[in-house]
Specification:
Keywords: Oxidoreductase. Belongs to the aldehyde dehydrogenase family. This is Aldehyde dehydrogenase. It holds the Pfam family Aldedh. The chain has 500 residues and is α/β, with parallel strands linked by helices. The chain folds into two domains: 230 residues, Aldehyde Dehydrogenase, Chain A, domain 1 (3-Layer(aba) Sandwich), CATH 3.40.605; 186 residues, Aldehyde Dehydrogenase, Chain A, domain 2. It contains 16 helices and 23 strands. Strands 13-16-17-12-11-19-20 form a seven-stranded mixed sheet, with helices on both faces. A six-stranded mixed sheet has the order 8-7-6-9-10-22, sandwiched between helices. It has a three-stranded antiparallel sheet with strand order 1-2-3, with helices on one face. A hairpin with a 2-residue loop joins strand 14 and strand 15. Helix 2 packs across helix 6 and helix 9 packs across helix 10. The longest helix has 26 residues. It binds NADPH dihydro-nicotinamide-adenine-dinucleotide phosphate. The site of NADPH dihydro-nicotinamide-adenine-dinucleotide phosphate has 31 residues, from helix 7 and helix 8.
């Protein structure tokens, strides 16, 4: 009996990874699978190229990265169509994703020199005879492992910042979106043909594992928490530093003074865009009692208008066929525990699609509240007040993003969320703001991409002190006299000994 191919499931055939559309099963492309020795060779080549790339300096890299940005901008429709074909993502969503990635390339290229370049730092009274100098030097080769759900935004979030900092990058795209990953790498090679500064290796999870062990100087991972732990364990063997962007279960809080129409609109988009397959997607909503019913009504009204299908629809197919079972299980479990489906429900799962599903009054110990669903579903639970909403939002080990709708207390509530990011009166917007760092806490990982912190993530701080005068109070020499030490004691008490 021959196995039936489930559309979207990658196949390895004759040493090639065959990528297919999750909607139609049509082949989108095939790429050679990298053996462990191939990964090592690609990393070696990237290391040779790293010297040349670092030697270009910030200005040289800036010009090239801005030209890369230009290629992506000019070919944005072509790339969005490819993302649609390979991952099933609606073209408008793909356009927004590429636009966001372009903005990050632009900012990283323009700001790397300012943030990472050599600078003087102030010295203090102690060691005033020395000047301080700081710069962030590139690691060398950065390995980037990416997921399928945002196959341009996530690898660019690491790669553009790593490249701008002077590293070369070896990317392992998800086996579900290797063709898009290769397109991205090829687009940079168009404007930087001299050396392989951005290359890709392809295959299944074992190729990612080989990249972790390949001797890269830093590993930037984006994917599930389960895999993040494996990556960290593999990298621990060689003390390779890691950046982990892992899963989430982001909450939205709707306070009593929120604009309910705006909240409902943002909730539907933040929860259901990309068919809910978004790490920072809204999965749980806590609305305070006085506005709960009105808010739910507005969400249902909007979500029921969304179209589902292959082409031109608001919600495309579930990219990873295996996820359909997870989504179904979460819906079934929520209903079995007493939750109610006010839109959709178990029947909403019709492979490869899932219709929008809104579940209310779902017990907090349900799978749909506690675990990443990664489908176009939302739980909306009623809470007494904002304090209870914050307590529930913070009750999970994840802590990636979040959203708050309200007026008077909204910013204060956002600050109390145990998460790396939060959006007030919008959803997901922090991901597109290149000046802000992106990353999570707890099981959502650690380290940051984007913004100044995202640039520093890809540079080793190098601290230099330089003598500029003779020491009046010699401390760090065997030549010091007992009188010098007595003076040191006196100065220490004078400088730091005050009681207040
Ligand atoms: P996975 O963890 O399954 O895979 C992520 C990447 O890791 C893939 O390229 C995968 O390769 C690779 N991989 C698999 N096994 C190993 C291994 N042992 N060692 C090294 N690499 C390995 O995640 P998904 O691709 O399913 O992506 C969805 C997840 O990503 C969700 O949890 C989502 O929340 C999270 N995510 C987090 C983001 C963030 O910024 N925090 C952003 C976007 C998504 P292969 O595909 O071939 O198995």
């Amino acid at each position: 009996m021959t196995a039936v191919h489930v559309p979207g499931t990658p196949i390895v055939s004759e040493g090639r990874l065959v990528s297919t559309s999750p909607a139609t099963g049509t082949e989108v492309g095939r790429l050679p699978v990298s053996a462990e020795a191939d990964v090592a060779r690609v990393v070696d080549r990237a290391r040779e190229a790293a010297g040349w790339w670092a030697g270009l300096g910030f200005a040289g890299r800036r010009g090239r990265l801005l030209r890369w940005r230009g290629v992506l901008a000019r070919r944005i429709e072509e790339l969005a169509e490819l993302m649609h074909a390979e991952g099933g993502k609606p073209v408008p969503d793909a356009i927004v994703e590429v636009l966001t990635a372009i903005e990050h390339i632009d900012w990283a290229a323009r700001n790397a020199g300012r943030v990472l370049g050599p600078r003087r730092v102030r010295s203090r009274l102690v060691l005033a005879e020395f000047s301080g100098h700081l710069e962030y030097q590139p690691y060398g080769v950065v390995g980037v492992i990416g997921p399928w759900n945002y196959p341009i935004f996530t690898p660019v979030g690491s790669s553009a910042y790593a490249l701008a900092a002077g590293n070369t990058v070896v990317l392992k795209p998800s086996e579900y979106t290797p063709v898009v990953g290769q397109w991205l790498v090829d687009s940079l090679a168009e404007v930087v043909p001299e050396q392989p500064v951005f290359t890709a290796v392809h295959g299944l999870g074992d190729v990612g594992a080989a990249l972790c062990r390949s001797g890269v100087d830093k590993l930037a991972f984006t994917g599930s928490t389960v895999t993040a732990k494996k990556v960290m364990a593999a990298c621990a063997e060689t003390l390779t530093p890691v950046l982990l962007e892992a899963g989430g279960k982001d909450a939205m809080i709707v306070d009593s003074d929120a604009d309910l129409d705006a909240a409902a609109e943002a909730c539907v988009w933040g929860g259901l865009t990309n068919a809910g397959q978004t790490c920072i997607g809204i999965e749980r909503v806590y609305a305070v009692e006085p506005v709960f019913d009105a808010f739910v009504g507005k969400v249902v009204e909007r979500a029921s208008r969304l179209t589902v299908g292959a082409d031109g629809a608001d919600i495309g197919p579930i990219t990873m066929p295996g996820q359909l079972d997870v989504i179904r299980r979460h819906i079934d479990d929520a209903l079995a525990r007493g939750g109610q489906a006010v839109l959709g429900g178990t029947d909403a799962v019709q492979p490869p699609y899932v219709r929008p599903t809104i579940l209310v009054d779902v017990p907090e110990d349900s799978l749909a509240v506690r675990e990443e669903t990664f489908g176009p579903t939302l739980t909306i639970n009623r809470v007494r007040d904002a304090d209870e909403a914050v307590a529930r939002a913070n009750a999970l080990p994840y802590g990636l993003g979040g959203s708050v709708f309200g007026r008077r207390r909204a910013v204060a509530i956002a600050r109390r969320l145990r998460s790396g990011m939060a959006a007030v009166n919008s959803t997901l917007t922090f991901a597109g703001m290149s000046t802000l760092p992106f990353g999570g806490v707890g099981e959502s990982g650690f380290g940051r991409i984007h913004g100044e912190d995202g640039l520093r993530e890809f540079g080793r701080p190098k601290a230099i002190t330089r003598r500029r005068a003779r020491s009046l109070l010699p401390a760090t020499t065997f030549e010091r006299t007992p009188a010098d030490v007595a003076r040191l004691v006196k100065v220490t008490k004078l400088l730091y000994g005050r009681r207040r």
